[in-house]
Write a structure and sequence with these properties.
The protein has 532 residues and is an alpha+beta fold. It has 17 helices and 18 strands. The protein folds into three domains: 155 residues, Creatine Amidinohydrolase, Chain A, domain 1 (3-Layer(aba) Sandwich); 67 residues, no CATH class; 253 residues, Creatinase/methionine aminopeptidase superfamily (Creatine Amidinohydrolase), CATH 3.90.230. Helix 10 runs antiparallel to helix 11, helix 13 crosses helix 14 and helix 15 packs antiparallel against helix 16. It binds glycine (GLY) and manganese (II) ion (2 copies). One manganese (II) ion (MN) binds next to loops.
């Protein structure tokens, strides 16, 4: 009787489900995601289990949430894009009564009423059918699910989100903590620093890293981080002997989040052919957006209007979002590295720094171009632009498999320091750090700052190369340089003997930038009525 009732209810739900037409057809396949889970499993220690939670929903205002962004790891391993879910991967086949499995999925429950308000849900059945999992349950079934986490050699999981709220996700985390007898949370501040220190192949940048750890400790209320014995050992003796010693300790101690991110980083740092199809698309369409904005820009336009053109072009190509908040800053705003207000009412005759990249099916582009809104670089703007361009070209020459990641930054710093010295902006090469204040590169993928573990470049890694010079007003140099900010950022796919620049369609050479600025855009003829 219950079974009849249940199937009746299920058929009502499927009848009630609102069909959706005209969806994109180039999503990653369930075979891709299954392949990534298998690759993850291969890297897991014998008799271990990995647990991956969805990201929380985040409040926008009152009862409205931000448009949901899935946990990229969960998406990578499953294709699931909803909140309130949990994936469990076992290294070895599990026998549970009659059931035999090496992975379990707990999906957000379907709810006809909620679905009419806030959108469709896959539910357990959808995860089975569309994502290809065999053992699928709903999240509310996890608490009573018979699974003894304590019998595994290792439980691997990332830091729990610190804003999980009070709903289903927090219940899932609590149930897992109880089942696995987890007494303390993984400390993100500590584990992330451990990972960076493990990737330091020499003591060359050690003092800088130690300074960053110290300033992090000084600016946090996190007592566990402040008192971490391993990090404090390095702070007391910042030399290569201590580094080797603590690297050994970190490796020996391990930790769930450390083990988890080592596996995720090793997978995600190498892009598969399926991912590269989406990344190429995301980067190409973003490059075209940069070109369109260059054609359209006039001094009378606002930063926000320029941002809107990026949004429009991205969406015209089917990218639903950006991989990070767009940065469109005129003049002094360009000196703020992650400027996101974009609210100057006109860009005037200023240099406009635009760091904007789409997100296509989860995959982010990351491109920066810097252009004079009136079409012509001044002599000073030109000098800085050409120096940044030269630094980028010099770095391009060493981008290939086998290059140490940190050497890209060594090269950038050297070229920029020499150039600033020759322009008389600095008197001593070491003062380059006043005007070049970030690293030159990071990995790119599902996260704009993507996960990685290997300090050496490998074929099919995707990285940015983004030198920049920022001279805020009041800097100790001739005022003619003030408020000039230039960053040029491209997305490079690593090859055995070099690279492929995937953002080539965005004009970069100074002459090409000026020629593009001289072109017309249909947007310049779009006249809207004046507001009352
Ligand atoms: N758009 C952020 C970055 O360039 O790293
Ligand atoms: Mn970047
Ligand atoms: Mn960027």
């Amino acid at each position: 009787m219950y079974k009849i009732l249940l199937s009746y209810c299920l058929s009502i739900i499927s009848i009630c489900a609102i069909a959706q037409d005209n969806l994109p057809t180039d999503f990653l396949t369930k075979e891709f995601h299954a392949g990534r889970r298998e690759a993850f499993r291969q890297k897991m220690p014998e008799n271990s289990v990995a647990v991956i939670f969805s990201f929380p929903e985040r409040v926008f205002s009152n009862d409205v949430t931000y448009s949901y962004h899935p946990n990229p790891d969960l998406y990578y391993l499953s294709g699931y894009k909803e909140p309130d879910a949990l994936l469990i991967i076992f290294k070895n086949k599990q026998q549970n009564g009659d059931l035999s499995y090496n992975e379990l999925f707990f999906a957000r429950k379907r709810d006809a009423l909620m679905e009419q308000w806030t959108g469709r849900r896959l539910g357990a059945e959808g995860v089975r059918k569309e994502l290809g999992f065999e053992q699928v349950y709903t999240s509310d079934q996890f608490r009573s699910f018979d699974i003894d986490f304590t019998k595994f050699s290792k439980i691997i999981y990332d830091y729990f989100p610190d804003d999980a709220g009070k709903g289903t996700l927090q219940t899932l985390i609590n149930s897992f903590s109880e089942k696995a007898k987890i007494s303390r949370q993984e400390n993100k501040n500590i584990i992330q620093n451990y990972s960076i220190l493990l990737n330091s192949t020499s003591a060359s940048n050690l003092q800088g890293r130690v300074n960053r750890i110290k300033s992090g400790m000084a600016n946090t209320g996190d007592a566990e981080f402040k008192n971490d014995p391993i990090l404090n050992e390095l702070i007391s003796n910042p030399n290569s002997e201590t580094l080797s010693l603590i690297q050994e300790k970190i490796r020996k101690n391990g930790s769930p989040a450390f083990d988890y991110n080592n596996i995720m980083g090793a997978l995600r740092e190498i892009k598969t052919p399926e991912e590269l199809v989406l990344l190429r698309k995301s980067i190409e369409l973003s490059s075209i957006a940069h070109k369109e904005v260059m054609k359209a820009v006039t001094p009378a336009m606002s930063e926000s209007e320029l941002t809107g053109i990026f949004h429009y072009v991205h969406k015209r190509y089917g990218a639903m979002d950006e991989g990070y908040p767009p940065i469109v800053g005129a003049g002094s705003n360009g000196c703020i590295l992650h400027y996101i207000e974009n609210n100057a009412t006109k860009v005037d005759n200023k240099l406009v720094l635009m760091d904007v990249g789409s997100e296509y099916h989860g995959y982010s582009a990351d491109i920066t171009r810097t252009v004079p809104a009136n079409g012509k670089f001044t002599a000073e703007q030109k000098a800085i632009y050409q120096l940044v361009y030269k630094a980028q070209e010099e770095v391009f020459k060493i981008v290939k498999e086998g290059t140490a990641f940190r050497d890209l930054n060594v090269k950038t710093t050297d070229v920029l320091a020499q150039g600033l010295l020759e322009l008389g902006i600095i008197k001593d090469k070491k003062d380059v750090s006043r005007y070049y204040i970030h690293g030159v590169s990071h990995h790119l993928g599902l996260d704009v700052h993507d996960k990685f573990v290997d300090p050496i470049l490998k074929e099919n890694m995707l990285i940015t190369v983004e030198p920049g010079i920022y001279i805020p007003k009041g800097s100790p140099c001739d005022p003619k340089w003030w408020d000039i900010a230039v960053r040029i950022e491209d997305d490079l796919l690593i090859r055995k003997n070099g690279y492929e620049n995937l953002s080539i369609a965005a004009p970069r050479k100074l002459e090409e930038v000026e020629a593009t600025l001289a072109q017309k855009s249909v947007l310049n003829n779009l006249a809207l009525p004046k507001l009352k």
